UniProtKB/TrEMBL annotation:
Gene Ontology terms: cellular component: BLOC-1 complex
GO aspect biological process, one term: endosomal transport
Pfam families, alphabetized: GCN5L1
InterPro entries cross-referenced by the UniProt entry: BLOC1S1
Residue stretches spanning the membrane: none
Signal peptide: none
Protein family (similarity comment): Belongs to the BLOC1S1 family.
Protein name: Biogenesis of lysosome-related organelles complex 1 subunit 1
Length: 129
């Protein structure tokens, strides 16, 4: 009877060990599947982040390029406006000089006309001279 109980115990222990081994394999498989799923999901997230980073870097490069172009264009416009302002000042100076010359020519013309009239009157008054 004791040997029968011992055999039953041994059989029970063997069955339990087999069940435990099956459960252990199932646990390992489940753990492996879970690990793979978690890693796949993490890899997908990391991959998406990497793609987003690349897109952001590319957009940043384009923005930097466009900003540099805009800065160069702005500098060109500033230079052009400065030159235009200088040209307007020169035109203003030329206009001012021409008005001064016109005024002086008018004064000279009036003076010469007055001298001519005075000489003509003097010649009429003294025809012998």
């Amino acid at each position: 009877m004791l040997s029968h109980i011992y055999r039953q115990h041994q059989e029970n222990v063997t069955v339990l060990k087999q069940k435990q081994e099956i459960k252990k394999r199932e646990l390992l498989l489940s753990t492996d599947r879970l690990t793979r799923l978690v890693l796949d999901e993490l890899n997908n997230d990391v991959s998406e982040c990497y793609k987003n980073e690349k897109r952001i870097d590319q957009a940043l490069k384009q923005l930097t390029t466009q900003t540099n172009i805009l800065a160069k264009q702005s500098q060109g416009w500033i230079t052009l406006i400065g030159q235009f302002t200088d040209a307007l000042k020169e035109l203003g100076d030329v206009e001012n000089y021409s008005k001064i010359i016109e005024r002086e020519c008018s004064i000279l013309t009036n003076t010469l006309a007055t001298v001519h009239q005075d000489m003509a009157k003097s010649c009429q008054a003294n025809p012998t001279e």
